[in-house]
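Input record (one chain):
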Amino acid sequence: MNLSDKKEMVFENEMGNASVSEYSVFPGVTLSFTSVHTDNFKPDISNEGTFVEIHHCREGRLEQTVGDDFFYLMPGDLSVSVKNKPSDIYSFPLRHYHGVTIFINVDIAPRCFSSFLEDVRVQPIEVAKKLCGDKNRFILRNEEYVEHIFSELYSIPEEMRKGYFKIKILELLFVLNGIGPSADTSETVSLSKTQVRLAKQAAEFLSENMDKRVTIADLAKMFNVSDTYLKNAFKGVYGVPISSFGRIQKMQSAAQMLIHTDKSVSEVAYIFGYSNESKFTSAFKKIMGDNPGKYKKMNG
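The corresponding structure, as predicted from the sequence alone:
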């Protein structure tokens, strides 16, 4: 692959970092691999026009907003959105995310991909508008045929990537062209700004009081809401019950120590209260997706 067709970017803040490997596939069409170990980052894109963004979540959780509504991608989910300008910030509630983004600048990209697909008429903006409707967003939950398209992207050798990415983008657009807007699940999983604010305030309190026993009833009373409302809001944002959040925070802290220090896996296990490295490895993999040794090697 021509080096000018690939751009590597790293974003850092006080919570961690994110790396993006972006490939130029067609004029106005890029495909990016995103690896995140922080709460948010701001992409280096400031153009205006008409854009189609397609996200596929492999691990973790991605927060998206359309107007006052919030949506969260989980592993296997795909989203399509039509925008007048690119997203100015990407947010990750679990501070852990791996996924693929296809970004189409409609003003630059080929209007129609039919020349590649013979008699099949596929126009990216028309496909996106059909799926999104006047809501400008579409979410497809963990469908096997979509997962098959994206899973193969991660294993292709570097020298074959550009040609393979072209094939996969055409395949994805062809598949999306055959899906109706009735497959959209965003309406059933959207959260209000009030729900998101409540969940994040509760998470912040739990993070600051990890050494204390805080019950759901305590939190609900503190924020003057019902137990059920709090539990639903929290699960909607973080994808896990409140009772599991402490374990996630613990493993995220352990992950940061593995990445940013020279401590061994056994040393980190001991620091976080595990006398048995194998138990720490099992707990770590459930939350972070990889065993500690591999995680340190890949992200350190």
